[in-house]
Amino acid sequence: MTVTPLGIPRRMLEFTLDGEEARVPEGSTILDACRAAGKDIPTLCEGDTLRPKNACRVCVVEVEGARTLVPACSRKAEPGMEVRTDTERARHSRKVVLELLASSVDLSTTPKVAGWLKEYEAKPDRFGPDAARLNEEPRVDNDLYVRDYDKCILCYKCVDACGDQWQNSFAISVAGRGFDARIAVEHDAPLTDSACVYCGNCIEVCPTGALSFKSEFDMRAAGTWDEARQTETTTVCAYCGVGCNLTLHVQDNEIVKVTSPHDNPVTHGNLCIKGRFGYQHVQNRD
Amino acid sequence: MDLHFGDSKPTDEERAAVDALLGPPESSWEGAARDEMRAADLRWARGGREARDRRDLLLPGLHAVNDRIGWISEGALDYLCRRLTVPPAEAYGVATFYAMFSVKPRPATVLHVCTDLACAAAGAPQLCAGIEARLGPGSGVSVERSPCLGLCERAPAALAVRAGDPVRTAVSAPATVEAAVLAASSPGSAPEEPPAALAVPQAGQDGLTLLHRVGVVDPSSLDDYRAHGGYTALRRAFELGPAGVIREVTDSGLVGRGGAAFPTGRKWQATASQPDRPHYLVCNADESEPGTFKDRVLMEGDPYALVEAMTIAGYATGAHKGYLYLRGEYPRALRLLEHAITQARARGLLGDDVLGQGYAFDIEIRRGAGAYICGEETALFNSIEGYRGEPRSKPPFPVEKGLFGKPTVENNVETLVNVLPVLTMGAPAYAAIGTGRSTGPKLFCVSGSVERPGVYEVPFGATLGEVLTLAGVREGLRAVLLGGAAGGFVRADELDVPLTFEGTREAGTTLGSGVVMAFDDSVPLPRLLLRIAEFFRDESCGQCVPCRVGTVRQEEALHRIVERTGADAAGDIALLREVGRAMRDASICGLGQTAWNAVESAIDRLGAYE
Ligand code: SF4
Ligand code: SF4
Ligand code: SF4
Ligand code: FES
Ligand code: FES
Questions:
Q1: Which DSSP symbol is given to A139?
Q2: Chain A to chain B Cβ contacts (< 8 Å)
Q3: Could you tell me which chain A residue has the CA closest to the CA of B540?
Q4: Residue partners of B328: CB distance under 8 A and separation at least 6
């Protein structure tokens, strides 16, 4: 069991959520309040371990008096605010945003998106067969992980995880701008020539599978990846004394990838290269 | 932070370009040659926080290399990163954000040929084709199609930049193939640009308030400026004290001229009262709205006025440092303002003790590098700080957390220059100009199908027709684009709209940045709309989905219907509307929120595609 430290007690504030009174601790976002009230709002760039960049705009809601819609994931609830989450206006924006995304990138490995596309009746095809797509080839330039930017929604999570929010390696950043913006290392070099230390924390946070373990990438290509057949076991990393938690994903008695529990108060899902990728010796059976 | 640098080395020239800005490296930790390594290097490392605090020199550093070499190589970028302790991946992200930089080799001379609205109407496509035919491969000139260069009154326009020490620039406008090729092949000997006053058809007339010195004073002479009333407003400011200045500005009813129309006095008050220090003043001179050139004309024709106005704004809001963020495409304004600031400093009008009043204030110029989005205030802060020019989400607002996370007041050039008459004539007299809710004089940039394109000053409340009459509107007017690419079109029979914030809002349009671009019936409307869509697609920062992908989908739809009307276009128009609505509602910043306005207005008001 993980222990969640209790912060300083916070004052509660009141506002209206879809016509009902809502009470949340000061500092909560609208999304926190929605989740507490059991409302399901789609999110993509929001993640439990990082400050959201509010770039995807699928979580927009209507706030009384605001000229535009606001991102629920980042806007703090304020006393007296009147928030509506499911208006025609908010639903329209979410639908179009989902269509825009699905028409430009490959969302086939993004959890939950298929359900949202259906729920919002999104039709990504209506932009026609010539709609510009990213059309990126997967970059396989090292043995540990693959960057398949054809699946990238530019959520900035990997940038933040590699940068000042977690790893402090600053190995990746956004390059270019507009539709041509891409995640890249310096000089758009191969990963092996970059400042990457292969901690894999960027893979941990990537919401779309644009970053994935080489093992997963290869198995998907071979058609053998099958999450239904996988078991997950959380254990403690044995390499050093820090004691990070590892979750081993095992399929057919082979470790296929390693993640780390985000609710661990010390590591929040972060690992180093050894914990994340150094599992081959476990299954060296010769 | 444990930075990793590759093995690419700068050339001597690249190193010299960076060192000219930052000084020679003090230790091998920051890039001095290994054999120069001193014993002390083994014990201490300059760098760390001290170097990281200079991150804001990244953009000037990129300019230094790009100016000298013409492009930014891996070795040069890595060296700059070492000097500033900036991760190379981030610096690469910054370098690739701006249109004026290249991270691929290119010829030392770049000729930017404007293909934007006014220039397109004035024959830019033929000009481009002609230039390209003359300057084929191997000419040593890279011809690049450019968004509006802010020279619309002299459309079509071209700007040549030749890298070297020093970098040379030449402007050709109105450009012919010969003149543009000459500017590119010998920028040093290209003919001088005409004086800024030529862009002000009213120059020298009585009754001008903002433009009264343009064409009258010598823009390079501080004495001449003072002889024409310069620095009386600053003296008055010192008499009034900071709170008194803010009161005057508030009472004058002055609102921001950049498009958002926020009351200037309120903004200043909100910044002045922040306990957090230091406070910063930022002058937004990144005028990049297609069709806008008034700030350029003010800066070129009366540069000291801006220096004085910034000093007053800094004094009132408790700032001791002002950043002047200037469009990268304005080389003459840069020269004149650099000169003006140096002169003002030498004469005690900037520096530790302004006018002997014990108030310290100085101005630093920062050059943009070709990104329309950097005119958005928070993107501008990021750009100065050495990050990608991506807008931040608000709240927090700049008055609380702006440049370097500190309380910041940000005003554009025209707004600041208005502060001078507010102080010299007093708030009541100023407020008496214009209408009740839109007070003071207003500048309009008139271009397109008119006899005398240029910057016009009229009191708020003049009608669109009156402004067009001043500029000599031509026969066959079909439409007027009001407010620029982010504004909207009005019909030729709507010229009685009063040019005030309320009046244009009532008429369902906007004043925006003061653009009045006239189009006669020879201009193919669908092409124009396509150009607007292309502009926003190019200038989107790419941060948020509705704008990054929405601008592309809109451009595609407009491409499909460029030759179509009626039922054939209906499906795509419906698509445009749906995407446009989501962009307006869900984009992070004003760019995405307004990118659809002009096209929508052309469909609704002009019946484009009917
Ligand atoms: S693996 Fe770690 S160091 Fe490498 S890019 Fe990802 S987050 Fe950065
Ligand atoms: S690679 Fe993944 S984490 Fe990084 S921006 Fe793209 S989608 Fe987000
Ligand atoms: S609206 Fe466009 S320019 Fe503004 S933040 Fe979003 S992508 Fe960037
Ligand atoms: S989840 Fe809120 S904007 Fe992406
Ligand atoms: S300079 Fe070409 S449109 Fe403005």
A1: B
A2: 167
A3: A178
A4: B63, B98, B100, B367, B368, B369, B370
Ligand nearest to the CA of A53: 4
Section B575-584 average pLDDT: 98
Looking at residue B53, what is its pLDDT? 84
Strand arrangement of the beta sheet that strand A20-25 belongs to: A20-25, A12-17, A82-84, A60-63, A70-71
- Between the CA of A90 and the centroid of ligand 4 the distance, in Å, is 13
pLDDT (tens digit per residue) in B332-369:
999 999 999 999 999 999 999 999 999 999 999 999 99
Q: Give, rounded to a whole angstrom, the gap between the first and last alpha carbons of chain A.
A: 35
- A1 has pLDDT over 50: no
Q: Do B2 and A188 touch (CB under 8 A)?
A: no
Round to the nearest angstrom and report the end-to-end CA distance of chain B.
60
| ipTM value for the complex | 0.95
Average confidence score pLDDT of chain B: 94
Q: Which of B382, B388, B376 is nearest to B588 (CA)?
A: B376
Which of B388, B393, B553 lies nearest to residue A174, judging by beta carbons? B388
Contact indicator for A216, A206 with CB cutoff of 8 Å = no
* Residue B158 pLDDT greater than 90, yes or no: yes
Q: Report CA-CA distances (Å) from A158 to A51, A211, B386.
A: 12, 9, 20
**Chain position carrying tokens 């296929």:** A256
Q: Which residues pair with B110 in a beta bridge?
A: B142, B161
Is CATH 2.20.25.90 correct for A145-283?
Answer: yes
Per-residue pLDDT, averaged over A262-285, amounts to: 88
- Convert the pLDDT of each residue in B54-98 to its tens digit: 999 999 999 999 999 999 999 999 999 999 999 999 999 999 999
Give the ligand at the shortest distance from the Cα of B593.
3
* Burial of A200 (C-beta count, 10 Å sphere; 0-12/13-18/19+): buried
Give the domain ranges of chain A: 13-133, 145-283
- Residue with CA closest to ligand 4 atom 1: A43
Q: What is the pLDDT of residue A14?
A: 96
List, as ranges, residues 4-33 from B with C-beta within 8 Å of A: 4, 6
CA–CA distance, B523 with B125 (Å, rounded to integer):
13
Report yes or no: B560 and A202 within 8 Å, Cβ to Cβ.
Answer: no
Copy the structure tokens of residue B102: 């290249």
Q: Do B586 and A128 touch (CB under 8 A)?
A: no
The CATH number, out of the four listed (3.40.50.300, 3.30.70.360, 3.30.365.10, 3.10.20.740), of the domain defined by the range A13-133: 3.10.20.740
CA-CA-CA-CA torsion for B406, B409, B413, B415, nearest 10 degrees?
170
